[in-house]
Amino acid sequence: MSSFSWRVWLALVLLFFPSTVAADESSLLEGWRDVWVFRFLVNMLGYSTIIIPGYLLISYFKRTNYLDTGFGICFPVIKSCVFGSEAKSGLLDDVSVAPRNEGNSGSSVRQVMKLIFCAAGLQASYLTWGVLQERVMTRSYGAQTPEEEGEKFKDSQFLVFMNRILALTVSGLWCIMFKQPSHGAPMYKYSFASFSNILSSWCQYEALKYISFPTQVLAKASKVIPVMLMGKIVSHKSYEYWEYFTAVLISVGVSMFLLSSTPSKHPSTVTTFSGIIILVGYIVFDSFTSNWQDNLFKYKMSSVQMMFGVNLFSCLFTVGSLLEQGAFFDSLSFMTRHSEFAFHAVLLSVCSACGQLFIFFTINQFGAAVFTIIMTLRQAIAILLSCFLYGHAVTLVGGFGVAVVFLALFLRVYARSRMKAGRRPAQSMGQRV
């Protein structure tokens, strides 16, 4: 962002905080760049320069009935972006390119090998991703001796961009190499999920500056609560009593862990009010993303097509905001100064993209229940790994709270599988009648 824009933001800050007028302007500017609220607002300003013109263009094309009157070389592109090419389907039978393989589709040994492959791929991708995420956001680079402070990387938005550009490339190549369903959704509808997705990812990275990684993992495990709330608001879903019960158990377990956490000398283990607020933002944005994607799947598309559409807009939003702030080239400069950071950032993106492909493959082969069990185990291992590598202390009460959370998560998987098993005999009896 230009120096003029920074001065405009500084003037607004001084308007609301007049006590800071006496401070040096340059030090104020640098200080406010480190405040997460300020960075969040600047990012939102960057996104608005893309969203507002896009909204005006879409409104114009719809208002002028462009679908009937348009022509020329741009017509197919505008039609695909604004109107789509196919009506919404009420069924989800064509969402997947291939039907999910059942357990009896091959030998049991082959199925076991597939399951081990999926579990190992998910664990390796996301455990490495979690360790690197904490390393990048909480540790410095370039220090030659323990006495030197080094230089910390501060721009979470650049890491989001790195993740999204690689995921876009991988999903694009996948769509080219393998047959996909005929795409019918208006492309602009991906922008809603993309916008909330980049905000949730930004919050996820930013939160690690204020709270410990184990706290973040538990907060992510408790997102089933806002997901249920968003499901009622966005999708008008109804839930079973056991879903409410396990949601309460998760809330109790997370509360026990947070209230029993003791501040440590290391800043990454101190749970602050800012960290909690950022985590709440992450959970809210992520809950909206999943529910919007559920609605978007009513169009005929595969999971990889969804991955491509969401990441396409994510790259557009983030690179536009980074270029407007001048942060894009600053981050590239940081990468050239610190080759270790460049390696970590690229490996972080590779793990994220590979992890998404493993998610799709696991769900396709074994269903959502098996996938949920694998990812729940991954969260538990991630907490232990973080405590071992980065020295996070967990009290006895906190450990019991963690156990309550994961017990509730496994109860959810068990209850859901029992409910689905109970429905199958009823459906088969109905078919016989």
From TrEMBL:
- Position of the signal peptide: 1-22
Q: Which Pfam families match?
A: UAA
Positions of transmembrane segments? 38-58, 241-260, 266-285, 306-329, 341-361, 368-391, 397-415
Entry keywords, A to Z? Membrane, Signal, Transmembrane, Transmembrane helix, Transport
- Bilayer topology: Multi-pass membrane protein
The record's subcellular location field reads: Membrane
Q: Which GO terms describe its molecular function?
A: 3'-phosphoadenosine 5'-phosphosulfate transmembrane transporter activity
InterPro entries assigned to the protein according to its UniProt record, in alphabetical order: EmrE-like, SCL35B1-4/HUT1
Recorded GO CC terms: endoplasmic reticulum membrane; Golgi membrane
Q: Which family does it belong to?
A: Belongs to the nucleotide-sugar transporter family. SLC35B subfamily.
Q: What is this protein called?
A: Adenosine 3'-phospho 5'-phosphosulfate transporter 1
